[in-house]
Specification:
This protein is 31% helix and 23% strand. The longest helix has 13 residues. The N and C termini lie far apart (30 Å).
Length: 75
C-alpha cells in the first residue's frame, strides 16, 4: 500500500514552514517541505505561499490541530 501525502499549510518563507514542521515533530508527526525557492537561494523571488508543508493523509487532521494550537495557521 502506498501512503499519500497531503498539503496541510502553505507559507511565504521557508523558515516559517520549518518552524511549523518543528511543532509537528514535537507532536510526533513527520512532515515534508516542498518549496519553489531554489533551496533558499531564491528568497524574495518566489511566489506568495510557495512553501508547502505536507504530512501523511492519516496525520492531516491532527497536524492541523497542532498547528492551529501553536498559532502557526488559521483554519
Amino acid at each position: 500500500m502506498q501512503e499519500e501525502a497531503v498539503v496541510i499549510a502553505r507559507f511565504g518563507f521557508r523558515h516559517e514552514a520549518e518552524t511549523a514542521a518543528g511543532f509537528l515533530l514535537d507532536a510526533g508527526i513527520n512532515s515534508l517541505l516542498s518549496a519553489d525557492d531554489a533551496g533558499g537561494a531564491g528568497i524574495g523571488f518566489s511566489q506568495y505561499e510557495s512553501v508547502r508543508l505536507l504530512v501523511l493523509r492519516e496525520d492531516a487532521e491532527r497536524a492541523r490541530e497542532v498547528l492551529q494550537a501553536a498559532g502557526e495557521v488559521d483554519i
